[in-house]
Amino acid sequence: MATQQVAVRLPAPLLARLDDLVESGAYESRAAVVRAGIEAIAAVEQRRRIDRSIVDGYSRLPPTEAEDHAALVSLSEAILEEPW
């Protein structure tokens, strides 16, 4: 996989927190911390886009009365199956 270097400036307090993560052994290097942070942000944003798409879909084509009823029946059955 081809990679590209990205340079960023960090304020001293944030850099100190980053270094603490490396020193604690949580991450191998500063670069590993930054990569993990970017991957986490990308994953959160991907889930947010998917969530928005689902909400948009239901807004454009809401469930029918029959689908609402089936969902409530299914929920009721699931509750009854719980070993309370």
Any descriptors?
3 helices; about 80 residues; mainly alpha; elongated; single chain
> How much is the radius of gyration in Å?
23 Å
Major sheet summary line? none
Note the quaternary state here: single chain
H/E order of the elements?
A: HHH
The helix content, as a percent range, equals over 70%
Shape: elongated
Distance separating the two termini: 51 Å
User: How much β-strand is present in the residues?
Assistant: under 5%
Average predicted local confidence, pLDDT? 95
Q: What structural category characterises the helix and strand content? A: mainly alpha
Count of distinct strands: 0
Number of helices: 3
**Which parts are unreliable, with pLDDT below 50 for 5 consecutive residues or more?**
none
Quick overview:
This protein is mainly α.
Structure notes:
The structure is a single chain. The protein has helices spanning 12-23, 30-60, 65-81. Helices cover 71% and strands 0% of the residues. By secondary structure, it is mostly helical.
What is the strand and helix layout of this fold?
Blueprint lengths: L11 H12 L6 H31 L4 H17 L3
